[in-house]
Amino acid sequence: MPRSKMRSSGKPVAITLGEPAGIGPDLTLQAWFNRKRLGLPPFYVRGDLQLLSQRAEKLELPVHFESCSPEQASDRFSHALPVVQTGPSLTDTPGEEDPAAAASVIASIEACVKDVFDGFAIGIVTNPINKSALYKASFKHPGHTEFLGALAEENWPGQLSKPVMMIAGPDLMVVPVTIHVPLSAVPQQLTEDLIVETAKIVANDMTSRFGFKNPRLALCGLNPHAGENGALGTEDQDVIVPAVERLKAMGIAASGPHPADTMFHPEARLKYDCALGMYHDQVLVPAKTIGFDDSVNVTLGLPFIRTSPDHGTAYTLAGTGMARIDSFCAAIRMAHALAHPETL
Ligand SMILES: NC(=O)C1=CN([C@@H]2O[C@H](COP(=O)(O)OP(=O)(O)OC[C@H]3O[C@@H](n4cnc5c(N)ncnc54)[C@H](O)[C@@H]3O)[C@@H](O)[C@H]2O)C=CC1
Ligand SMILES: NCC(=O)COP(=O)(O)O
């Protein structure tokens, strides 16, 4: 979206704390510090003032902070990074997890979603979490995507279709049909219904949120050469072919199963608008290879807007000033654009 068309005032975007030992604090501070140059819309972070101040000092960034409520954030944004204190004070230890911080990480996500529900924010941008750190603290969801689905059910009962992960970049949009699932469990979890349900959400959201008229969805095969007519695995014929037929019968421009190894070269990518992979790495590898710095993780199917950078916590970069902020800023811009489709 042209930056000039981005509204500089209005309701803000809510940013989550993310893993405090990761690069989330760096991204938040750097994005605010460069807000004018980058033309970013207003945002606030639900995090911890002490931790952010300590990280800003390490990065030698002269950031002015203001502790405020979500309603006050947009007015503060031009002169200060608005911080909505969420949870107790934390000590900044880049690269070193503090198990006690997990509760704040989770509380921040919950509170940002509630802010959207209450009408204080246009959507949320999540800073990266360390999933295994949260699992140790008994977090029951595989990742944000599934957790946000549960929060949607709680806050907007009956309005969730199903949370669907999309990695969207200027040159490639992809969706993994199964998400945070061990590879060995993929064939069992991959059902005709799951593929159809996921593809319907993708087609619907690409139309209603991203302005595609009749998005072309290309489904990857599961097995090498899409199963080679059953000789290299039966799921392609037994599960994916009937799913594609059902989708076509509904008027969705679906095709496949296509051999996944030849779906991502430049000429092949011209033939579809979104590639649906059968498992996480099948489509996230090409998406991050082609567009690591400018792709955004956006959750489809939710009754609210959620975006995120496409990368993780990058512990070794935390507090060094070396983390690139491009994907994080693209996530903020996308959240804003989805809330203001007239600017698209
Ligand atoms: N949305 C989320 O919350 C996500 C969280 N994760 C979590 O992040 C943790 C670490 O995962 P990894 O697989 O190591 O992925 P990662 O994305 O943190 O790091 C992969 C590589 O990319 C580099 N990198 C990442 N972000 C960068 C940036 N902004 N600028 C420059 N270089 C960058 C890192 O230094 C590393 O070499 C895991 O616990 C994982 O669960 C991973 C992806 C998304
Ligand atoms: N590899 C991307 C990823 O796993 C992000 O997951 P989520 O936390 O956004 O659900």
Automatic annotation (TrEMBL):
Cofactor(s) of this protein: Zn(2+); Mg(2+); Co(2+)
Known catalytic reactions: 4-(phosphooxy)-L-threonine + NAD(+) = 3-amino-2-oxopropyl phosphate + CO2 + NADH
Coiled-coil annotated residue ranges, if any: none
Top-level taxon: Bacteria
Gene Ontology biological-process annotations: pyridoxal phosphate biosynthetic process; pyridoxine biosynthetic process
Protein location: Cytoplasm
EC number of the protein: 1.1.1.262
Keyword list, A-Z: Cobalt, Cytoplasm, Magnesium, Metal-binding, NAD, NADP, Oxidoreductase, Pyridoxine biosynthesis, Zinc
Pathway(s) it belongs to: Cofactor biosynthesis; pyridoxine 5'-phosphate biosynthesis; pyridoxine 5'-phosphate from D-erythrose 4-phosphate: step 4/5
Signal peptide: none
EC class: oxidoreductase
Function: Catalyzes the NAD(P)-dependent oxidation of 4-(phosphooxy)-L-threonine (HTP) into 2-amino-3-oxo-4-(phosphooxy)butyric acid which spontaneously decarboxylates to form 3-amino-2-oxopropyl phosphate (AHAP).
Family of this protein: Belongs to the PdxA family.
Protein name as annotated: 4-hydroxythreonine-4-phosphate dehydrogenase
Gene, per the UniProt record: pdxA
